[in-house]
Amino acid sequence: MSSDETVGLGVRAPERINAPFDRVWAVMIDKMYNTSKYLPVHNVKTEDRSPTHVYREMTIGSDKTIKEDIYLDKDSGTIRCDVIGADEIHFNKFHKNADEQVLEYWMENSKGERIPWNAPKSVVLKAMKITKEMAEKEID
What H or E segment, with its residue span, contains residue 63? Predict the structure, then answer.
């Protein structure tokens, strides 16, 4: 894989996560609040706007600030990050059925159509790997 390959219409983790769903979900939530442990971002600020959502802003690189409203749906294993001021919605989903148990990340527009995500695929796969390692680490 070249270093400039992008996520495109989405990416699935290459390996299953061998951990209970509640543990995977807890790590996925941690990623929303402690994003810099998983992704190369800084100046992460979150605000709990219960009961509806979490607000997050973070800086990528030296100057690109992203502001998001984040919606958590534990029943479906999906975290939806609506980018404020852009027609971009990032999805982090854990396919929790026994046959899969993998993460999938993709981006949609407000019409619910998958759209190309120009993020580096290597960065997204690394975040998925960290999520897997964190979820599996707590198993006794």
Answer: none
Rounded-to-10 torsion of CA 95, 79, 118, 131: -60
For residue 121, pLDDT beyond 60: yes
**Domain range summary for the chain, segments of one domain joined by +:** 6-135
Residue 95 has pLDDT above 50, yes or no: yes
The torsion angles phi and psi of 78, rounded to 5 degrees, stand at -120, 135
C-alpha span between 30 and 23 (Å, rounded):
11
- Provide the whole-model pTM: 0.92
The CATH fold of domain 6-135: Alpha-D-Glucose-1,6-Bisphosphate; Chain A, domain 4 (3.30.530)
Q: 96: which 2 tokens? A: 């929790």
- Asked whether residue 1 carries a pLDDT value surpassing 90, the answer given is no
Q: What gap in Å lies between CA 42 and CA 58, rounded to an integer? A: 6
